[in-house]
Amino acid sequence: MTAFTESDIKELKDLMIVLQQEIQKLQIGQVEIQRDIKRIAIGQAEIKAKFGEFEKRVDERMGSLEKRVDDISTRLNIMTIGFLSIVGVMVAGMLGILGKVVFFPNP
Fold it and tell me: Number of C-alpha atoms within 13 angstroms, CB side, residue 1?
């Protein structure tokens, strides 16, 4: 068997210390990565919540816009019906006058 000298043992201990330090660095890095992942997840949840609020506001605006368009459409329909009624009465009157002149001429 080979005999280990004091320098070999010291070298192995130094190597173990260096490896333990590297392992600690990796563990610290892993903890930081997990913390970052947690922050990202929280950020995504906040973004989703803000997007939900934004979507809700857009839906409310669209609802109010649709109501306004419906009101304007109703007003336009009323105005159109009124205009066509007036035109219809005028046409009926003109046809009545024309019919009287054509069918009942003055002698």
Answer: 3
